[in-house]
Amino acid sequence: MSARLSAAPPPSVRVRAPGKVNLALRVGPVGPDGYHPLATIFQAVSLFEEVTATQVAPGSGISLTVSGPQAEAVPTDETNLAWRAAALLAERTGLAADVALHLTKGVPVAGGMAGGSADAAAALVACDTLWEAGVPRPELVEMAAELGADVPFSLLGHTAVGTGRGDLLTPAMTRGEFHWCFGTQRTGLSTPSVFRRFDELAGSRASTVDPADDAELMHALRAGDPVALGTALHNDLEPAALDLRPELAEVLEVATEAGALGVVVSGSGPTVAALARSRQHALALGAAWTAADVVDSIWCASGPAPGTQVVTSVAR
Ligand code: C5P
């Protein structure tokens, strides 16, 4: 009997959180806190990070392992956002920070699709569930915002308007499913350096941001009209990303020539998002990129996708 009990798997929780694309990203002049005011429309897409939190012996501390594409590019120490999420939750709840985290990467690394933010959102929910902390949702969202501007959106998912640093969210109404193909580069771009280049290029000319500027885009979402959405895609960080990575211009061009409904750099890049008419068309756009040899990998997905959710939970 005792032998059977000791062979039982330790309690663990598996949680999945989506990556995102910014359908619109408007950036204002940098503030005294070093952050830029944003007016953005996020859409979660069906590329998911998975975080498994497993119980360990008391006093073991936090440990972290990573698998999946580009896993070798991900830090496995306390600088990892998932690690920081577990540590923050423990600190705020007074619980012991003892957990083994495993990340399965499904979102391009350092690609402007918030893969690291998804890890943080998933780790918060996984540890909250494993430790039976029962942190009320608003507090979880506050911790998410402390960890990074994109983390609250990964908790929420679907489509939402983001203001402030991008962390103040209002869900947006959409109809139907949108099909995407994402073209990624082996070497990522650092978000702070893209914002810095934005400052150098736009400087004090950066205008104040207003979500009302995206009225047409919001209408396209409500109507489920991918053609209108394609025309309305917009990213103020695109010139900065192109300046740092001039070869991205060709990625945009190839997708446009292949009939994409719209093409835009995703967030701070270097991932390029191409909107397609259908799942099949998304695959064709990816094939055009591969044939032109302008991206290192292609990832087809659809949006909107749900926010962070528990997939499985093995109880005590
Ligand atoms: O919040 P997060 O850590 O994801 O942001 C990474 C960096 O991106 C920040 O340190 C800042 O340099 C830049 N950023 C910004 N304005 C925002 C969001 C991020 O300047 N609204």
TrEMBL record:
Pathway of action: Isoprenoid biosynthesis; isopentenyl diphosphate biosynthesis via DXP pathway; isopentenyl diphosphate from 1-deoxy-D-xylulose 5-phosphate: step 3/6
Record-listed E.C. numbers: 2.7.1.148
Residue ranges of every copy of the GHMP kinase N-terminal domain listed in the record: 80-157
Record-annotated GHMP kinase C-terminal domain positions: 217-291
Binding site for ATP: 108-118
Family matches, as Gene3D superfamilies: 3.30.230.10, GHMP kinase, C-terminal domain
Regions annotated as coiled coil: none
Active site feature: 20, 150
InterPro entries, per database record: GHMP_kinase_C_dom (IPR013750), GHMP_kinase_C_sf (IPR036554), GHMP_kinase_N_dom (IPR006204), IspE (IPR004424), Ribosomal_Su5_D2-typ_SF (IPR020568), Ribsml_uS5_D2-typ_fold_subgr (IPR014721)
Keyword annotations: ATP-binding, Isoprene biosynthesis, Kinase, Nucleotide-binding, Transferase
Enzyme class: transferase
Catalytic activity: 4-CDP-2-C-methyl-D-erythritol + ATP = 4-CDP-2-C-methyl-D-erythritol 2-phosphate + ADP + H(+)
GO molecular function: 4-(cytidine 5'-diphospho)-2-C-methyl-D-erythritol kinase activity; ATP binding
GO biological process: isopentenyl diphosphate biosynthetic process, methylerythritol 4-phosphate pathway; terpenoid biosynthetic process
Record-linked SUPFAM superfamilies: GHMP Kinase, C-terminal domain, Ribosomal protein S5 domain 2-like
Keyword DNA repair on entry: no
Similarity field: Belongs to the GHMP kinase family. IspE subfamily.
Biological function: Catalyzes the phosphorylation of the position 2 hydroxy group of 4-diphosphocytidyl-2C-methyl-D-erythritol.
Name of the protein described by the UniProt record: 4-diphosphocytidyl-2-C-methyl-D-erythritol kinase
